[in-house]
Amino acid sequence: MTRLETDILIIGSGAGGGVLAATLSELTNRRITIIEKGGYFGREFFDQREWDMRVLYANDGNRTTADGWIPVRGGECVGGGTTINIALSFDPVRRVWDRWRQEFDVTGFSFDGGSSDYRVAGLNMAACTTDVRRRINVHSPDPQEVNDNNRLFEAGCRAVGVSTRLFELNMKDCLGCGYCAEGCAYDRKQGTMITYVADALSRGVRLVHHCEIDAIEFEQRKGRLTAVGARGRVRATSVGSRPNAVSAGNIHISARIVFVCAGAIETPVLLMRSGHPDPHGVLGKGLVLHPSLPIVGVMDRPLTNYRGISGSIYSDHFYESHGFYYECLFGHPVYGSVVLPGFGTDHFEQMLRFQQTAGFGVMLIDSSDPDNRVEWDPIHARRAIRYRLAESDKIRLRFAARKGVEIMLAAGAHEVILPSEEPVGPAAAPRFHRASEAAACDDLQFRPHQTTITSAHCQATVKMGEDPRRAGINSRGESHFVKNLLICDSSAFPSSCGANPMVSILTMARYQGRRIAAEMGRYDP
Amino acid sequence: MLALGLTGCARLLDTTRLSYLAIDESPPQSYLPVLQALVRTVLPFDHPRFPPVSPEAIDQRLLKLFPFRPDDEETLTLRRALMIFNDVHLFPAALPALLAQELNALGVDDRHSPAWSEAVGTMRAADERIYAQFSGGARPRPPEHFVDLTPEGRVEYYRLWSQSLFSVKRHFYRSTKTLILVSAWSMDEMWSSIGYAGPLVTGHDKA
């Protein structure tokens, strides 16, 4: 049994935990320990092979909804999702945070750059966003960095009157290899592992990886249930990982403050597993996934698709009216083969056109339905992600698919393929050759295991807000029921944050880190 | 690793849906021929542009990436499902155990409700209809086992599983297809056929 003592325990080293560790180590002199469930894999490990790099993902890339249909991708390694995302960076969407203020009693998080929330000089979202953008080098790519796939998407949108924008990306001198999702082998993507976690480690923060926390420990202190540490197990260090700070075996960590930053799936599960009070049945409920539908087009000529910056152009044209984005991106052969419909000769001939293939995706801002949830089954020690596409979301997805087919055809595709086995379209297959055929998308049923839906942005399973009947934590990120237990990851969002969530999480963590450093007395025993 | 999450195969491996349909253990000599026949259905080895990769190489890689250990509870379901799949004439049968699992998959609380009965009737009728299209005109009747079907018959039969209204059958289709495609397309030897140049970094060990 390894026994550690620390002042601040941070469970999770991704977008939330990494920034918190860096900020608290910058602004306080407390002892800080980061716990990471996954391994500590650096650039020397990233071999740009899809199968090998599955170890960077939760459940080795096989975390899905309980019915096995929708993959719920997430990073499970130092840096978390920021290690395996494709660097798409959206500033926090102010109107979403304003709505949370009105609908969920969220306080603080001022977007006015002159505000000093919680009486902390200069503490506001604008300042924290600036800090984050600077640290992870958020910027727009140069026009010459936009590859053919993105250019075709842009041209297709323009042809049908759909507006586009250049993405902002957290990269520095990107080499355009196209393997962001397999971890950046050149340290050009500015994920938290090489930015905030590295900053924290340079200030003496301790990192324990390969460590699964079984439970957070609570005690009654001064009449209040109080977090006092955690216990778990450290696995043997995986081949290819950097060395660990402790040996494999059981571990117990005593702490004065416990932060859970394990992501919107694992955070509520850890709270449930730990026996965190939940008198109003809030934990795990209202899961948001940002379900995504790939759209594939076959061009008449080879194009640059899997090389170059994967995503540099997107469209928010339908964000206000229909609540979705088109985001340009492309995959590699394993992903591509799985997305394409059919099998046998038909499927192989689709693969033969790999170099002529273009792709982008629909990313839907889904509604936060309490029936969509994360559950913990204590008897079988198993979690389940229950998720069903709402009928209203299906209607919007059909519209997005239809317009997406039109865009791809206008971009020059002679065939557009939806990743579906549903018998829709003129040939009873989701393949389209003329814009007039796109209306067949209205017949899509989005049946499980028949149409491919992906997800990578799980959110909103703990929820912040001042009303404990509707939210698991308050606006400071503090548990409503356990003193000195705080949550800082995408589970804290009351609903979808309205965009790819990375920068929203980082900014929230920077904000909370600065606030906590200024209010440290609040957490003293 | 984006693709594996698309497979849903973890759920098929570690849940017990289809396992209710089979009572007996499925020894390797029973399920492996079915799996091998599926490999040869999903991948067109006789296509003139198919790379020089043998079916046996894919078989071996699949079992390396997704080991079917005899004592492994997680793969027991898939092994049993392969046996059920092999029994062609079972396809249109709405076995009670399958209905129970579909009920669970759809999250239906009341199995006695008229709505559920109607839904089952619809799903069953659809499966009977597509199965009749598959087998109806054939004289003599098609072989009883997938492994004994002609290559064309295997394609038609496997496609039935993608078109069923029962989600557990579509789940089997999608999972097996994906296990095979992941096994194949993660091999360097497959890539030149599609013009994929592969990784830029060198010096790493590969799986």
The gross shape of chain A turns out to be globular
Helical amount of chain A: 10-25%
**Rg estimate of chain B, integer Å:** 19 Å
- Approximate shape of chain B: globular
Q: What's the helix count of chain A?
A: 12
In a nutshell, what does this entry contain?
The complex is a heterodimer of chains A (525) and B (207). Chain A has 525 residues and is an alpha/beta fold. Chain A is built from twelve helices and 20 strands.
Features:
heterodimer; A: 525 residues; alpha/beta; seven-stranded antiparallel sheet; 12 helices; 23% helix; globular; B: 207 residues; mainly alpha; 0% strand; disordered N terminus
Polypeptide structure, described:
The complex is a heterodimer of chains A (525) and B (207). Chain A has 525 residues and is of the alpha/beta class. Chain A is 23% helix and 18% strand. Chain A is built from 12 helices and 20 strands. Chain B has 207 residues and is mainly α. Helix content of chain B is 58%, strand content 0%. In chain B, α3 crosses α4, α7 packs antiparallel against α8 and α8 packs across α9. Classes of the chains: A alpha/beta (525), B mainly alpha (207).
How is the secondary structure organized here?
The complex is a heterodimer of chains A (about 525) and B (about 210).
Chain A: E1 2-5, E2 8-11, H1 17-27, E3 32-35, H2 81-84, H3 94-103, H4 125-135, E4 138-139, H5 148-159, E5 165-166, E6 169-170, H6 196-202, E7 206-208, E8 211-221, E9 224-234, E10 249-254, E11 257-260, H7 263-273, E12 292-298, E13 313-315, H8 319-322, E14 324-328, H9 333-339, H10 344-352, E15 357-364, E16 373-377, E17 382-386, H11 391-410, E18 415-417, E19 431-432, E20 485-487, H12 502-518
Parallel strand pairs in A: 1-10, 2-3, 2-11, 3-7, 11-20
Antiparallel strand pairs in A: 4-6, 5-13, 8-9, 9-10, 12-15, 12-18, 13-14, 14-15, 16-17, 18-19
Helix pairs in contact in A: 1-6, 1-12, 4-12, 5-11
Chain B: H1 3-7, H2 9-14, H3 28-42, H4 55-65, H5 73-86, H6 96-106, H7 114-135, H8 151-163, H9 167-185, H10 188-191
Helix pairs in contact in B: 3-4, 3-5, 3-8, 3-9, 4-9, 7-8, 8-9
